[in-house]
Amino acid sequence: MRAPQAKADLRQAARSATSGFSAPGIEAILEDTVIIVSAPRSGSSLLFEQLALIPGIWTIGGESHGILRAFPHLQAENPEFDSGSLGEVHADAETRQLLQSCFLYLLKDHHGGRYLDRPESQRPSKVCLVEKTPRNALNIPFLLNVFPRAKFIYLYRDPRETVASLIEAWSLGLQTGRFVTFHGLPGWDRPAWCFLLPRGWRKMRGRSLAEIAAFQWSASNTVIMDELAKLPSQRWTTITFQSLIAQPREALARLCRFAGIEVDDGQLPDGMLPLSRTALTPPRADKWMKYKNEFEALSPTLSATARKFESFCQGRQEPVNQG
After folding, report:
1. Which fold does the domain 7-276+284-313 belong to in CATH?
2. DSSP string of 251-304?
3. What is the pLDDT of residue 319?
4. How confident is the model at residue 294 (pLDDT cuts 50, 70, 90)?
Protein backbone atom coordinates (compact mmCIF):
# COMPACT_ATOMS: atom_id res chain seq x y z
CA MET A 1 0.00 0.00 0.00
CA ARG A 2 1.44 3.35 -0.99
CA ALA A 3 0.71 6.70 0.65
CA PRO A 4 -0.66 9.28 -1.79
CA GLN A 5 1.63 11.96 -3.13
CA ALA A 6 -1.04 14.64 -3.38
CA LYS A 7 -1.87 16.13 0.00
CA ALA A 8 -5.41 16.82 -1.12
CA ASP A 9 -5.94 13.07 -1.41
CA LEU A 10 -4.76 12.26 2.09
CA ARG A 11 -8.08 12.48 3.91
CA GLN A 12 -9.91 10.44 1.30
CA ALA A 13 -7.18 7.80 1.18
CA ALA A 14 -7.02 7.56 4.97
CA ARG A 15 -10.76 7.25 5.29
CA SER A 16 -10.84 4.47 2.69
CA ALA A 17 -7.81 2.58 4.05
CA THR A 18 -9.09 2.58 7.64
CA SER A 19 -12.76 1.94 6.86
CA GLY A 20 -12.51 -1.51 8.44
CA PHE A 21 -11.62 0.00 11.82
CA SER A 22 -14.11 1.46 14.25
CA ALA A 23 -13.45 4.93 15.65
CA PRO A 24 -12.86 3.51 19.17
CA GLY A 25 -10.60 0.87 17.62
CA ILE A 26 -8.36 3.48 15.98
CA GLU A 27 -8.24 5.50 19.17
CA ALA A 28 -7.21 2.40 21.12
CA ILE A 29 -4.34 1.68 18.70
CA LEU A 30 -3.02 5.24 19.15
CA GLU A 31 -3.71 5.35 22.89
CA ASP A 32 -0.03 5.48 23.90
CA THR A 33 0.91 8.47 21.74
CA VAL A 34 3.88 10.55 22.91
CA ILE A 35 4.14 14.12 21.62
CA ILE A 36 7.34 16.18 21.49
CA VAL A 37 6.82 19.86 22.25
CA SER A 38 9.46 22.58 22.03
CA ALA A 39 10.24 25.98 20.64
CA PRO A 40 11.39 25.82 17.00
CA ARG A 41 15.11 25.16 16.43
CA SER A 42 15.44 23.54 19.86
CA GLY A 43 16.68 20.20 18.51
CA SER A 44 13.33 18.46 18.24
CA SER A 45 14.17 17.07 14.78
CA LEU A 46 17.28 15.40 16.16
CA LEU A 47 15.36 13.97 19.12
CA PHE A 48 12.56 12.74 16.87
CA GLU A 49 14.97 11.14 14.40
CA GLN A 50 16.78 9.27 17.17
CA LEU A 51 13.59 8.04 18.82
CA ALA A 52 12.22 6.91 15.45
CA LEU A 53 15.10 4.42 15.13
CA ILE A 54 14.24 2.60 18.35
CA PRO A 55 12.30 -0.69 18.12
CA GLY A 56 8.83 -0.33 19.57
CA ILE A 57 8.45 3.31 18.54
CA TRP A 58 6.20 4.21 15.63
CA THR A 59 5.95 7.45 13.65
CA ILE A 60 4.28 8.67 10.47
CA GLY A 61 7.72 8.81 8.86
CA GLY A 62 8.26 12.49 9.54
CA GLU A 63 6.49 15.54 10.92
CA SER A 64 2.76 16.07 10.77
CA HIS A 65 2.80 19.22 8.61
CA GLY A 66 1.28 17.27 5.73
CA ILE A 67 -1.59 15.99 7.83
CA LEU A 68 -2.44 19.43 9.20
CA ARG A 69 -2.28 20.98 5.73
CA ALA A 70 -4.90 18.48 4.56
CA PHE A 71 -7.39 20.21 6.89
CA PRO A 72 -7.85 23.82 5.69
CA HIS A 73 -9.62 24.91 8.88
CA LEU A 74 -6.52 23.95 10.89
CA GLN A 75 -4.26 26.45 9.11
CA ALA A 76 -4.64 29.08 11.82
CA GLU A 77 -6.61 29.90 14.95
CA ASN A 78 -9.23 31.90 13.06
CA PRO A 79 -9.79 33.66 9.70
CA GLU A 80 -8.04 36.76 11.08
CA PHE A 81 -4.82 34.74 11.50
CA ASP A 82 -4.43 35.86 15.10
CA SER A 83 -2.16 32.86 15.70
CA GLY A 84 -1.39 29.33 14.64
CA SER A 85 -2.77 28.06 17.95
CA LEU A 86 -5.39 25.33 17.88
CA GLY A 87 -7.70 24.56 20.78
CA GLU A 88 -10.33 22.00 21.69
CA VAL A 89 -12.89 23.67 19.46
CA HIS A 90 -10.81 22.92 16.35
CA ALA A 91 -10.96 19.17 17.02
CA ASP A 92 -14.65 18.58 16.45
CA ALA A 93 -15.80 14.95 16.30
CA GLU A 94 -15.38 14.60 12.53
CA THR A 95 -11.97 16.29 12.46
CA ARG A 96 -10.77 14.26 15.41
CA GLN A 97 -11.79 10.95 13.88
CA LEU A 98 -10.33 11.77 10.48
CA LEU A 99 -7.07 13.00 11.97
CA GLN A 100 -6.71 9.73 13.84
CA SER A 101 -7.39 7.86 10.60
CA CYS A 102 -4.65 9.86 8.85
CA PHE A 103 -2.14 8.98 11.56
CA LEU A 104 -3.08 5.30 11.39
CA TYR A 105 -2.89 5.36 7.60
CA LEU A 106 0.67 6.75 7.64
CA LEU A 107 1.88 4.82 10.70
CA LYS A 108 5.32 3.19 10.30
CA ASP A 109 7.61 1.13 12.51
CA HIS A 110 11.30 1.87 13.10
CA HIS A 111 12.20 0.07 9.86
CA GLY A 112 9.73 2.14 7.84
CA GLY A 113 7.23 -0.70 7.47
CA ARG A 114 3.63 0.50 7.39
CA TYR A 115 1.18 -0.69 10.01
CA LEU A 116 -1.59 -1.31 7.48
CA ASP A 117 0.72 -3.35 5.23
CA ARG A 118 1.11 -5.97 7.96
CA PRO A 119 -1.21 -8.96 8.04
CA GLU A 120 -3.96 -8.31 10.52
CA SER A 121 -2.62 -10.98 12.88
CA GLN A 122 0.75 -9.17 13.05
CA ARG A 123 -0.57 -5.72 13.86
CA PRO A 124 -0.07 -4.74 17.50
CA SER A 125 -3.27 -3.78 19.28
CA LYS A 126 -1.51 -0.66 20.60
CA VAL A 127 1.51 1.27 19.41
CA CYS A 128 3.69 4.00 20.85
CA LEU A 129 3.29 6.74 18.25
CA VAL A 130 5.83 9.55 18.61
CA GLU A 131 4.55 12.75 17.03
CA LYS A 132 6.55 15.89 16.40
CA THR A 133 6.20 19.25 14.76
CA PRO A 134 7.23 22.60 16.31
CA ARG A 135 3.67 23.89 15.95
CA ASN A 136 2.65 21.37 18.63
CA ALA A 137 3.95 23.89 21.18
CA LEU A 138 0.89 26.05 20.54
CA ASN A 139 -1.63 23.22 20.16
CA ILE A 140 -1.60 21.16 23.35
CA PRO A 141 -5.36 21.54 24.10
CA PHE A 142 -6.11 20.51 20.51
CA LEU A 143 -3.74 17.54 20.66
CA LEU A 144 -5.32 16.33 23.89
CA ASN A 145 -8.66 16.24 22.14
CA VAL A 146 -7.21 14.18 19.28
CA PHE A 147 -5.08 11.95 21.54
CA PRO A 148 -6.84 12.00 24.94
CA ARG A 149 -4.25 9.85 26.74
CA ALA A 150 -1.15 11.41 25.16
CA LYS A 151 2.04 11.99 27.08
CA PHE A 152 4.39 14.88 26.33
CA ILE A 153 8.17 15.22 26.05
CA TYR A 154 9.11 18.86 26.60
CA LEU A 155 12.47 19.63 24.97
CA TYR A 156 14.13 22.82 26.15
CA ARG A 157 17.22 24.49 24.73
CA ASP A 158 19.31 27.41 25.95
CA PRO A 159 17.73 30.64 24.67
CA ARG A 160 20.93 32.02 23.23
CA GLU A 161 21.58 28.91 21.15
CA THR A 162 17.98 28.60 20.02
CA VAL A 163 17.46 32.25 19.14
CA ALA A 164 20.75 32.35 17.23
CA SER A 165 19.64 29.33 15.24
CA LEU A 166 16.23 30.93 14.62
CA ILE A 167 17.84 34.11 13.31
CA GLU A 168 19.91 32.11 10.82
CA ALA A 169 16.92 30.06 9.74
CA TRP A 170 14.70 33.15 9.32
CA SER A 171 17.39 34.77 7.15
CA LEU A 172 17.59 31.68 4.97
CA GLY A 173 13.82 31.29 4.89
CA LEU A 174 13.18 34.81 3.64
CA GLN A 175 15.75 34.25 0.88
CA THR A 176 14.80 30.74 -0.23
CA GLY A 177 11.34 29.93 1.12
CA ARG A 178 12.63 27.20 3.42
CA PHE A 179 10.99 27.27 6.88
CA VAL A 180 8.22 29.57 5.61
CA THR A 181 4.82 28.76 7.13
CA PHE A 182 2.77 31.73 5.87
CA HIS A 183 3.06 33.72 2.65
CA GLY A 184 1.34 37.09 2.49
CA LEU A 185 0.29 37.04 6.13
CA PRO A 186 -2.31 39.82 6.61
CA GLY A 187 -0.77 42.83 8.32
CA TRP A 188 2.78 41.51 8.15
CA ASP A 189 5.54 43.76 6.78
CA ARG A 190 7.71 41.01 5.34
CA PRO A 191 6.94 38.72 2.39
CA ALA A 192 6.67 35.66 4.62
CA TRP A 193 6.53 34.36 8.17
CA CYS A 194 8.77 31.48 9.24
CA PHE A 195 8.06 28.80 11.85
CA LEU A 196 5.14 28.85 14.28
CA LEU A 197 2.82 31.82 14.76
CA PRO A 198 2.20 32.68 18.44
CA ARG A 199 -0.51 35.03 19.63
CA GLY A 200 0.71 38.62 19.63
CA TRP A 201 2.82 38.20 16.50
CA ARG A 202 1.61 41.54 15.07
CA LYS A 203 3.66 43.33 17.72
CA MET A 204 6.74 42.09 15.85
CA ARG A 205 5.94 44.28 12.86
CA GLY A 206 9.03 46.39 12.09
CA ARG A 207 11.17 44.49 14.61
CA SER A 208 14.53 42.86 13.93
CA LEU A 209 14.93 39.15 13.23
CA ALA A 210 16.57 38.81 16.64
CA GLU A 211 13.49 40.28 18.34
CA ILE A 212 11.15 38.05 16.31
CA ALA A 213 13.20 34.96 17.15
CA ALA A 214 13.26 35.83 20.86
CA PHE A 215 9.50 36.37 20.78
CA GLN A 216 8.94 32.94 19.23
CA TRP A 217 11.25 31.23 21.72
CA SER A 218 9.73 32.89 24.76
CA ALA A 219 6.11 32.52 23.61
CA SER A 220 6.54 28.84 22.71
CA ASN A 221 8.13 27.87 26.00
CA THR A 222 5.63 29.89 28.03
CA VAL A 223 2.64 28.26 26.34
CA ILE A 224 4.13 24.79 26.79
CA MET A 225 4.73 25.29 30.49
CA ASP A 226 1.33 26.82 31.09
CA GLU A 227 -0.46 23.95 29.35
CA LEU A 228 1.59 21.08 30.76
CA ALA A 229 1.13 22.46 34.27
CA LYS A 230 -2.58 21.63 33.91
CA LEU A 231 -1.82 17.92 33.42
CA PRO A 232 -0.88 15.26 35.99
CA SER A 233 2.88 15.18 36.38
CA GLN A 234 3.12 11.60 35.05
CA ARG A 235 1.78 12.80 31.69
CA TRP A 236 4.88 14.84 30.84
CA THR A 237 8.63 14.93 31.22
CA THR A 238 11.38 17.39 30.36
CA ILE A 239 14.74 17.08 28.68
CA THR A 240 17.28 19.68 27.66
CA PHE A 241 19.04 19.73 24.33
CA GLN A 242 22.32 19.94 26.23
CA SER A 243 21.70 16.66 28.06
CA LEU A 244 20.60 14.96 24.83
CA ILE A 245 23.88 15.93 23.18
CA ALA A 246 26.10 15.24 26.20
CA GLN A 247 24.59 11.87 27.19
CA PRO A 248 22.41 10.62 24.33
CA ARG A 249 22.19 7.00 25.46
CA GLU A 250 21.11 7.89 28.98
CA ALA A 251 18.72 10.58 27.78
CA LEU A 252 17.00 8.35 25.22
CA ALA A 253 16.81 5.44 27.65
CA ARG A 254 15.01 7.67 30.15
CA LEU A 255 12.57 8.86 27.51
CA CYS A 256 11.87 5.27 26.48
CA ARG A 257 11.04 4.41 30.08
CA PHE A 258 8.72 7.39 30.19
CA ALA A 259 7.02 6.19 26.99
CA GLY A 260 6.73 2.63 28.31
CA ILE A 261 9.17 1.18 25.75
CA GLU A 262 11.60 -1.54 26.81
CA VAL A 263 14.98 -1.00 25.19
CA ASP A 264 18.51 -2.31 25.73
CA ASP A 265 21.79 -0.45 25.29
CA GLY A 266 22.47 -2.07 21.92
CA GLN A 267 19.41 -0.33 20.48
CA LEU A 268 20.58 3.12 21.55
CA PRO A 269 23.26 5.37 20.01
CA ASP A 270 26.77 5.22 21.38
CA GLY A 271 28.84 8.37 21.05
CA MET A 272 28.19 11.64 19.30
CA LEU A 273 24.84 12.02 17.57
CA PRO A 274 24.73 12.93 13.86
CA LEU A 275 23.35 16.24 12.69
CA SER A 276 19.61 16.26 12.11
CA ARG A 277 18.25 16.64 8.59
CA THR A 278 17.13 20.20 9.36
CA ALA A 279 20.42 21.43 10.86
CA LEU A 280 22.02 24.36 9.06
CA THR A 281 25.33 24.29 10.94
CA PRO A 282 26.72 22.06 13.71
CA PRO A 283 25.50 23.12 17.18
CA ARG A 284 27.98 25.23 19.12
CA ALA A 285 27.59 26.69 22.58
CA ASP A 286 29.17 29.95 21.41
CA LYS A 287 27.12 30.39 18.22
CA TRP A 288 25.13 33.13 19.89
CA MET A 289 28.24 35.32 20.30
CA LYS A 290 27.72 36.45 16.71
CA TYR A 291 24.60 38.23 17.98
CA LYS A 292 25.99 39.38 21.32
CA ASN A 293 24.78 42.98 20.99
CA GLU A 294 21.24 41.88 20.14
CA PHE A 295 21.18 39.47 23.08
CA GLU A 296 22.09 42.19 25.53
CA ALA A 297 18.88 44.02 24.64
CA LEU A 298 16.84 40.80 24.67
CA SER A 299 18.24 39.51 27.96
CA PRO A 300 15.34 40.55 30.25
CA THR A 301 12.73 38.67 28.22
CA LEU A 302 14.87 35.59 27.68
CA SER A 303 16.05 35.45 31.28
CA ALA A 304 12.50 35.65 32.62
CA THR A 305 11.42 32.65 30.55
CA ALA A 306 14.57 30.72 31.46
CA ARG A 307 13.87 31.30 35.16
CA LYS A 308 10.31 30.12 34.67
CA PHE A 309 11.65 26.88 33.15
CA GLU A 310 13.97 26.30 36.11
CA SER A 311 11.06 26.76 38.49
CA PHE A 312 8.86 24.56 36.32
CA CYS A 313 11.30 21.67 36.64
CA GLN A 314 11.73 21.87 40.39
CA GLY A 315 10.45 18.86 42.28
CA ARG A 316 10.51 16.55 39.28
CA GLN A 317 11.41 12.93 40.10
CA GLU A 318 13.91 12.93 37.23
CA PRO A 319 15.61 16.32 37.46
CA VAL A 320 16.74 17.93 34.23
CA ASN A 321 20.45 17.96 33.51
CA GLN A 322 21.09 21.40 32.06
CA GLY A 323 24.51 20.38 30.79
Report:
1. Rossmann fold (3.40.50)
2. HHHHHHHHHT----GGGS--SSPPPPTT-SS---TTGGGGGHHHHHHHHHHHHH
3. 41
4. confident
